[in-house]
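Pilot study result, target chain (378 residues):
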Amino acid sequence: MKKSGKISTLQLSLIVITAVGLKNHVTILPHLLPSAKRDGWISVLLALGLILIWCLLLFYIHKATGQTNIFVWVETNIGKASGKVLSIATSIFFASLAAVSLKEMIMWTKVSYLPITPPIFEIILFTGLCFFLASTNIQTIVITNTFVLTAVIVFGIFVAFANIQFKDFSLLKPIMENGWSPVVSGMIYPLSGLIELIVILFMQQKVHGQLKFKVFTLNAIILTWLILGPLIGSITEFGPLEASRQKYPAFEQWGLVTLGRFIEHLDFLSIYQWLTGAFIRVSFFLFLSLEVLSIKKKRSKTILLLAYSILLIVANTYSFSDVILYHIIGAFVMPITFWFFLAVSILLSIFVFSSNRRKRRPPSDVQENQKATVQAEK
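Predicted structure:
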C-alpha cells in the first residue's frame, strides 16, 4: 500500500474474487442448472463474451473519470442532483444485496448444520462482525480478505482434485440436445454475477495508479472460472438431472471427498468457505454503500452504517421457507441486479460522452451561441 488509504489493483482483484466470487461459486448454480441443464457451461461462456464487450464500456468510463469517485465526477460535470440520485440508489442497492447474501447464508446454516439454533443469534452476531469490519477502512478489509481467501483457494483446489475419481465428463454430452432455448434462458444467471465487476469502477478512487483494461478482463475470466468449476463438477459427478435437483450443488460436492479409506466427512471445510465469503461480501458491500455516497464526516458514516446494519437485522428476522428464498433470488434478485448495473453503466457512459463532447467543442462556437442567445433575448 504505497499511499494512505490506497490499495493495489491486485488487492482490489482479491476482494472481487471473494465478494463477487461467492455469488458466482455458490448462488448461481442452483438456478443455472435447472434452466440450462448440461449446457449450462455454454451459457456461462456466452455470458463471458458479452461481459468482455461490456468491460470496454467500463474502461471507457474509467479513462474519462480517472481516480475520482465516479459519483463525485457526475456531480461536478453533469449536475449535483443527477449525482446524488444515482449515488443514493446505488448505495441502497448494495445494502440490499448485502441483506440477500446474509439471508442466504443464514438459511443455508439452518438447513445444513445448525437446524435448532435460533437464527436471530446468528444474524446479530454476523451483522455485528460485518459492521465492525465495514466501519474500518479498505486497507483493513484487504488484509482480512487476504488471510481468509488463502485458505478458501486451498480448499477449493483440494475438493476439485479429490473428486476427479468421481467425474464422468461424458455426462457433458450431448451438447445442445434441446437447442438454443435453455442456453439463452440460463445466461441471465451468470450475467447477474459477472456484472458485479462494476464494483471495480466504484472503487477506482481507492486504487493507486490507473486501472488497465486487463484488470477488468482478468477478473471477468477468473469469476467465470469460479462458475464453471463447480458447474462442470456437479454435472460430471452427479449427472445433469440430479445436479439440477440439488439446492447447494457446490456444497454437495464436498460430501464425496475422502482421504484414503478412513477419513471422510470433510464437508465441514465448506462451512469455512461459505462463512468467510459471506463475511467479506456483506462487509465489502456495506463499505461500498457508504463509499459511493462520498460522505466526509466519520460520524455521519458510522450513523448510516449502523442504520444499514439494523435494517439488515430487521429484514433477516422475517422468517420464510428456503423455497421462497430460492424463488425470490432466481426470479427477482438476479435479473434486477443485472439490469440495474447495466443501466448504471450505460447512464455513466452517456454522461462521460456528453462531458467529453462539451470539452472538445471549440470556444468560438460557444461564444457565437452565447451571442445568438443574447440577440434573441433582445
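One observation from the pilot: The radius of gyration is 23 Å. A full batch analysis is planned for the follow-on phase.
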